[in-house]
Write a structure and sequence with these properties.
The complex is a heterodimer of chains A (about 260) and B (about 260). Chain A has about 260 residues and is of the alpha/beta class. Chain A has nine helices and ten strands. Chain A starts with a strand and ends with a helix. Classes of the chains: A alpha/beta (about 260), B mainly alpha (about 260). Chain A: Belongs to the ABC transporter superfamily.
Amino acid sequence: MSFVDLEGVSLTYRLGKATTLALADATLSVAKGEFIAVVGPSGCGKSTIMKLVTGLLPPSTGQVRVAGQRVTRPIKGVGMAFQNPTLMPWRTTIDNILLPMEVVEPHKRRFRRHRAEYEARAMKLLGTVGLTDFADKYPWQLSGGMQQRSNLCRALIHEPELLMLDEPFGALDAFTREELWGVMQALWLERRFTGILVTHDLREAVYLADTVYVMSRRPGRVVLRRSIDLPRPRTLETTFEPHFVDIVHELRERIHQEHAA
Amino acid sequence: MSDWRRNALRIAMPWLTIAVLLLLWEGVCVVFDVPEILLPRPTKVFSVFVVRFDILVAFCWDTLWTTVVGFLLAIAGGLLLGLAIGASPFIYSGLYPLLIAFNAIPKVALVPILMIWAGVGALPAVVTAFVISIFPIVVNVATGLATIEPEMRDVLRSLGATRTEILIKVGIPRAMPYLFASLKVAITLAFIGSVIAETVGGNRGIGFLMLSAGARNDTPTTFAGLFAIAIMGVGMYAICALVEKRMTRWAFRGEIVN
C-alpha cells in the first residue's frame, strides 16, 4: 500500500509567454515508512517534485495522491527542511523548533496551556541531535551544521507522517554532512516516517534511502529506480564497502548518460 | 592608542566637530565684521538662548508635541497600510501608485488647504507632520513583508498555516527592523512637516517664532529657533535609535551598533 503516489505527473512553468516543462510524466510511489531519495542533474525538476507532493504547486497533468487523498491544495502538517535552514532569527532555537506546535492541529489548541510539556518534548529532540546546550541561543549564534540540526528538529517535532527534505545538507562541509546523515538515519529508525529526500549527492542518497530514483535532464522524468538493499543502521564504514560503492557507481553511470545525451 | 582612549575619542568626536565649526563661525564673523542681521555670532545666538529661554521652551513644546502626535499617528497608519500593501498584491497595485503620487506633492502646498479646513492652530501642524512622515514607514514595512524568504513561506504553508498565521508568525516580526529603521527617517521628516505648517500659517510653535523674529529683523532669535529644532531633532532621533536597538536586537545579531 503506497503512501505517496505520483501518476504521470508533469508540470509546466509559465513565465510570460515562455513555458518550461520542468517535469515530464513522473510516476513513482512511496510506501508508508519508506525513505526514498530523488537524484539527478541540476535543473531536472527535483525540487518541483517536493512542491507537487506537498501541494504547494498543482500539477499540469496527472495526479498526486498522499495517504489515498488526491492533493489539490497544500496538505497540512508535513515536515519540510530546505538547504537554507530558514530559522527565524528573532526566536531562540527552542522557540523555532516549537513553531509547528503553534500551527498544526491538535497541538495548536493545547500549546499555550501545555507549554512545559511541549518544551520537554523539544528538549528531548534537541538532545538526540546533540543541541541540548543551545536551546536558548539564537540561530545566528549557531554554526551552519547546528542550524541545520535545528531545522531537522523543527521538521520533525510534530511527528509528521511525511518528511520532505530538499538538499538539507547541501550547504554544509563534508564532515558535518556525513555526521548529519547518521543523525537523520537515527531519527528515521526511531520514528519511521515516510521520507522524500531530494539531493545531488549520490552517496547521501544511497546512505539514507531505501529506494533511489534517478531523474533525467530537463524535462525531468524518472529513468531509474534502484532499491538499496544495504542493512541498517548504515555507518560511515558502510560507505567504503564494495557493495555501497558499486551502487553509487551504477547511479553515477546513469547520470553520466544523462549529461552525455 | 589604547582602547580606552580610542573609545573616549569616538564619543567626543561629535562634540569636538561641533565646537570646531562654532569656533570657525565665530572667527569668520569677528574677522570679517559680519553684520548681526546677516549672520549672528554663535555666542550671540547662545545669549539669546539664555535670555529668551522661557519663550523658546514654550514654543519648542508646541512644535514638539504636534510633531510627536503626527509621528505617532504616522506609525500607526504606516504600519497598517504597509502591512496591507506588503501582504496583498491587489492592495499593492491599487494603492502604491497613489501613494507615490501623494508623496510627490510638496507638503507646503497642503498647509493652506488644511488651514481652510481646520483653521489656524495645532491641527495643520499635526496633519502635515503625519502626511510627510508616513511614506517612509509604509514603504519600509511593505518591503519587510515582501522580502520574506519563499522557503519560510513554504515551510509554514505545508504545516497548514493560514495567511493570517503566516503574517503574524513571520510577516510582522520580519517587518519590525524595517519599521524601526524607517522611524529614524520619519521623525526628522515629521519635524520638517510641523515647522513648515507653523511657518506657512500658524500662530504657534518654533516655526512661527522664527518667522515673526525674522520679520522684526531679529536674526539671532531666528537662529536660536533653528538650533532648537536641530536639538529636538537629534534628541528624537536618538530615542528612535534606542527603541530600535531594544526591539530588534536579533536584527543586529546581538552586536552593539551605533
